[in-house]
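Protocol step 4 of 6: structure prediction from sequence.
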Amino acid sequence: MAIFPRPVSPKRAVHDLWGYFRENRPHKWPLLGLSAAITYVIIWAFIVDGNTNTMPTRNKIVYFQSWDANRSDAAIILQQKMDLARYNVILQKKQGEMQRLADALGIEWREEEARKTRERKEALKQINALLDKRLVKAEADAPGAPIDGVQTPKSAAARTKVTQP
């Protein structure tokens, strides 16, 4: 059984290729270079794609924040307020980058950004008011409780006070 179809044989294919190279055509070498370059780029793309995200990752350590089990509610709420402020700073920085990209691409973003900024400020005001309200309630429920592991003199005195029945 022949590998090639009947009219084509390896000997005939080599003869045709050799005949093409012997002819004097002005476009012969640029086309040969272009076809070799395209072939190289395709093979290179397959090699790069084959090596992308296929190697096993070494022991990847994921760190997480551990908290003291006896944290007060006030300390938790203060941490939430700090996390919210940090998130807002990161969000504004990322939006600045996207706005510069939109300017470079000619995308109009100013009207929508003004509307979103108003909505975000209103939402942040409501969230901060809620957190402040919860913070006042948490401090009232446990007066003098340690905040972030720091015990105030008032909290030490409150804990040592023994009430008489």
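Step 5 (inspection) to follow. Helices lie at 10-22, 28-51, 73-105, 110-141, 153-160.
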